[in-house]
Amino acid sequence: MRVLFVCLGNICRSPTAEAMFRRHLDEAGLAARVEVDSCGIGPWHVGKAPDPRARLAAAERGLDLSALRARQLAADDFARFDYLLAMDQDNLAALEAQRPAGSEAHMGLFLDFAGLQGRAVPDPYYGGDQGFEEVLDLVEAASLGLVAAVRRRLEAGS
Length: 158
Known about the structure:
This protein is α/β, with parallel strands linked by helices. The chain is 42% helix and 13% strand. The chain has 5 helices and 4 strands; from the N terminus they run βαβααβαβα. The chain has helices at residues 13-27, 52-59, 77-80, 89-98, 129-157; strands at residues 2-7, 35-40, 83-86, 106-109. Strands 2-1-3-4 form a 4-stranded parallel sheet. β1, α1 (13-27) and β2 (35-40) form a beta-alpha-beta unit.
């Protein structure tokens, strides 16, 4: 099973989601069965570490983003990943526009897994520190829901 989190530049929301989801997979005993990654739609931050504010907010909750580096969505991601989860409608529209014919990957909004259908994880980049806290709260709720969905899918395939 492979999960890819997607935001605009891969320095705030999607790396935070990647780290939070990894934590919950580990706690659920599923870390060895699920590959996790994140990327951005655009190339602006390729190779850069997550935003310092995202790293600080995550560290305050015991998450380490320091090893992550931004990358851009690649054409083969649609074949490699079972889930491509967007942080907002614009990211989802970009995924849908780039999706190759025949791709069977599940594409949708990450917050759908928190029962927040159609809602976006707001981009905290241009705001204050509270935006990074809100992102953490939202991705934690969605991560728990996604772990449950992944567990069901893995058990059905076993």
